[in-house]
Amino acid sequence: MPLSLAIVVVALPLLMFLFLGLVGVKMGRKITGVIGVLAMLVDTVLAYGVALTYFFGSGQGQVVDGVRQAVVVANPAWLSFTDTLVVRMGVLVDPIAAMMLVVITTVSLMVHLYSLGYMSDHDGNAEKGFQRYYAFLALFTFSMLGLVVATNIFQIFVFFEMVGLSSYLLIGFYYSTPAANHANKKAFIVTRLADLFFLLGIMILSYYTGTFDFDKLVFGPTMSGSLETAQSAISTAGGATFMGCSVMAWALTFIFIGGAGKSAMYPLHIWLPDAMEGPTPVSALIHAATMVVAGVFLVARLFPLYVLVQGAMNIILVVGAFTAFYAAAIACTQSDIKRALAFSTISQIAFMMTSLAVSSNQNALIEIHEGYGLGYMASMFHLFTHAMFKALLFLCAGAIIHAVHSNENSKMHGLHKYMPITSICFFIGCLAIAGIPPFAGFWSKDEILVAAYQRGLGWGIWMSMVAGMTAFYMFRIYYLIFFWKKHEVHDEHHKPKDQPWTMTLPLIILAAISCVAGFVPFHDLVTWDGKALHTALDMKVAGTSVVIALLGIALATVMYYKENKLPERMANAMRGLWTASYKRFYMDELYQFITHKVIFQGICVPIAWFDRHIIDGFMNLMADATNSLSFGIRRMQSGSIQAYVYVYLLGALLLGVITMICVIF
Amino acid sequence: MMDYSQFLLMPQEIGLLLVFLLVFIYDTFMPERSQRYMPIFSVIMMALYTIYCFCFPAGVGEAFGGMFESNAPTWVMKNILNVGVVLVLLQAVKWTNNDFVSVRRGEFYELILLTLLGMFLMISARHFLLFVIGLETASLPIAALAAFEKRYYESHEAAAKYIFTAIFSSAIFLLGISFVYGMSGSLYFKDIATTLIGNRSALLIASLAFVIAGVGFKLSLVPFHQWTADVYQGAPTAVTSYLSVISKGAAAFSFLVILVQVFGSAYSQVWEWMLYAIIVLTITIGNLFAIRQRNLKRFLAFSSISQAGYIMLGIIAVNVMGMSSMIYYVLVYIFSNLAAFGVIAAIERQTGKVTMDDYNGLFKTNPWLAFTMMLAMFSLGGIPPFAGFFSKFFIFVGACHQGTVAIYILVLIALINTIISLYYYLLVVKAMFLRQDDCVIPTIKSHWTERTGLILCTLGIIFIGLISCIYAYINGTVDAIGAMFAAIQ
To answer: Among A351, A543, A513, which residue's Cα sits nearest to residue A429?
Structure first.
């Protein structure tokens, strides 16, 4: 299969968006959904074809001297401002792009299929706005695919915004509920704020290096040359500094802030829990598997630049490690299962960020040692596995919410008896995220921990602790949903039950993937420099992490398997801490305070006054003047033809005479 | 022995004559029962002819001893006018089939085609005799067209006012030409231009003032504009739309040629300032009057007066960009204004309502008409991303390229006026979308010809601005004759 099919992979969802958006409205609800699913199926098959060809095919120039090459399939100019400043829109296939194609299309296909059932009521009738929903899903898929195959940083930015837009549209899908409207506004504004920094970063970077293109920034003639290319890109920036740091450090930090907004890193994470107001399949696709890893992808894409700028990498490391712990701590107390999963997502993405950051090394410029790219590989690996099992967990949560019509775990309890398939799938997801072998999460998380220990003992211990917390809070959620006590059935006719096959099938497929995804030979395929990486299972790290995970699970079992007073006693013992965690450490309140009290009062009110009195006043003055003038001259238009001719003649004569006076005298 | 090959330089004129003859023959000799299809026949012939002209560019060169010139920009200008006429005719089809007008519908199409021929001559004329012939051919039949709705008093009034003012302005114009002849002894543009170099006499200034007044009448520039409102209001809407876009466009094109080619040497200090004053007056007064209008046709009359002022910015720029942006402006203006008139005509034909208050709540009953009207208003007001924004943008940039401080101030005045114009354009939108009314215009089933015309206009409004190669193409053609501006600077 030729790699150029990647263009089709990207374009097909766009066509589906246009088709469903324009024509779909006129068609039946169900049929648009089916068309959407079929198109996505075709797209997935093509994406798999492209990825398999890229990784295992023997195409020309794909692997040179054991180094996997980046292949630019198409790269037409889109906007050419000057001869050198050209924005291109292209399709690039390299290890991470190919991997992302697989991730996005797989999860998207599952969500498309799942939504057929989820977006219907219990009699199987599709909801209002079904076509709009599928059109937006297709738009999102297109934007996300366009982002990962971008050939230059400007294209990434364009698609970054489009992803943000489609996320906004989907969070606010139930636009009649105020909560959804608040949530989508919040998501949009917070990510836009971050994107502002991203744009600044792009400007600085391209100003100093004179290019947007990745092939000049990070890929060399061969991938192994990428460090040299990056170095030359950085050296063109010269020794320019700003406020004591090199401009490159500023640029890369700004770009990271853009990524942190999308990837919900502390303190820009506040939008993600609220984004759970959207339909649950949307949360699975956008806010668990794909869009939220855009920031990780961005840092990975510019990785060869980041390794050279130690300062930026340290910021990422600190932010990532802190966020991982912070979000895990909150996830331990949340009662809304989607919120809990959202914080778990934040924590896991922070894992990926940390993993990227630990792979940089003070000695990077001097020697590239063997374990150097391990963090990068582990991060991408975890991105892949996490997308699968987190999508699974979200879809399970969706099935439960669909059955009991509530997000609160107090309304659930004891569902195992009623929804056995969902329960098993959720269990597999929990095992995977907790890092129990042989499920997917174990392999990727293990690599991350190894990389963290290589960076320093402290980082390793910290991340191991967070991994233990992960196991604890996931099983807490699991037990509270499916066990704890007997489910109270309010209505005998509407007992919770397992969902229709359109919803069950994606769960089973994703559960199966979560079981086996750990065996994908990532170290051969996805590495930062294209060379295969030799890794072996580090028994010390693997052993401890399994033990820690088991401890976490054991604790959760003791506390939450059967109804007992222990959790309440613990909460009472640590009342302050528990409340703070439940209230998400008051971050939202802090933001409220800063925006409402400081920014609104201190900046916006004076500006508003200026606007209302000075600018509006001036405008009103002009308007009044115009109005009265207009009223005053109305008699000029008398309707009498004689008067018209007089004015005409007078006008012509005056024109001549005045000009004569001016010119001649 | 005459050299017939020079006729090859005028394929558009000859083709138009042919269309006219076909329409005329159809009108005269076809049996009564097939007369009903005559409007459609004319539209189709005109459309085919337009496409033909577009596919086969006219040659470049002079004919008849230099009286007639054909080059790439004139070809483009005529094509633009052709497109506009096709749209006008298309929108008039249903109207000309009503019981009161159908007896004379042939005349409508024939006269329109003839006036268009006159405009072509104005654009290509390089000799004042030919120009005056073109001007009169383009003017006089319009009086007959304005009086087309015989049963209405206003229609008569419009025709009378038009013809009297037209005759008066022709007299003034000819007086100006005679002064020019007196100074130079020739009526050829080229010869006049060479003899006038360095001339700053009172006679020249007087003749310039009269020439500007004469053409300013057709463009309805202030203070030669007063007929506009009454005629626009009284004339049938199809004629008004023709008058407001095609006639105005042709006048603008030929005005540029005359000022630059004949009086180019008198640009600085003389007609620069004349035009300056006229532009300021035209834009401002057009706007000020437009604010007060409740009748939409009258409203669009004043709006078109102020639009003419913007078109003049392209002339005062005296450079390639100015000229190409003026041509582009007219193209965009044709689509925007015809969209507005198309909506007005469709509503007027079925309900007879033309005031702004009648349009209250139109969106509820006729969403598509309201939507088209909104786009037209946005485009006329210059709101991005519609075509009107780009045309205003280019014309301002073109004017700024002229470079003097005075022009910057002029552009600033024009910009401020754009804001004022937004106010009254949005009044219409507000009426349609926000206001409520008890007696809303009922849902109207428009005829397919009207709908086609409106759809074409809407597409034009949306896409002409976005397809950047259109402007680039016009600019390229004007570049070919860029030398004519070199003499001025």
So the answer is: A513
Q: Is A72 helix (H, G, I), strand (E, B) or coil?
A: strand
Check if B230 contacts A (Cβ < 8 Å).
Answer: yes
| Rounded distance between C-alpha atoms, residue B262 and residue B194, angstroms | 9
Cβ(B228)–Cβ(B304) below 8 Å = yes
Q: Which residues of B are less than 8 Å from A616 in CB distance?
A: none
Per-residue 3-state assignment (H helix, E strand, C coil) for A279-298: CHHHHHHHHHHCHHHHHHHH
Each residue's pLDDT tens digit, A64-88:
766 777 788 888 877 766 667 778 8
Which residue type sits at A555? L
Among residues A662, A648, A649, A647, which one has the least CA distance to residue B272?
A: A662
Distance CA A250, CA A254 (A): 6
Q: How far apart are CA A508 and CA A644, in angstroms?
A: 85
Residues 6+ apart with CB under 8 A from B409: none
- The string of pLDDT tens digits covering residues A473-509 is 999 889 888 887 777 776 666 677 777 788 888 889 9
DSSP β-bridge partners for residue A484: A562
Task: Name the residue with tokens 């990056």.
Answer: A230
Asked if B278 is an interface residue toward chain A (Cβ–Cβ < 8 A), one would say yes
Rg for chain A, CA atoms, rounded = 29
**Closest approach of A244 to chain B, Cα-based (Å):** 42
Interface test with A, best of B165, B167, B205 (most A CBs within 10 A): B205
Dihedral class, residue A177 (left if φ above 0, else alpha if ψ from -120 to 50, else beta) = beta
* Chain centre to alpha carbon of residue A515: 24
Q: Which of residues 410-449 of B touch A (CB under 8 A)?
A: 416, 420, 423
Q: Answer yes or no: are the C-beta atoms of B299 and B424 closer than 8 Å.
A: yes
Nearest CB partner across the interface for A656, out of B209, B224, B289? B209
DSSP annotation of A602 reads I
Q: Nearest C-alpha of chain A: how many angstroms from B420?
A: 8
Measure the CA–CA gap between B238 and A439, rounded to whole angstroms.
76
Would you say the ipTM is above 0.85?
A: yes
**In terms of pTM, does the model score above 0.80?**
no
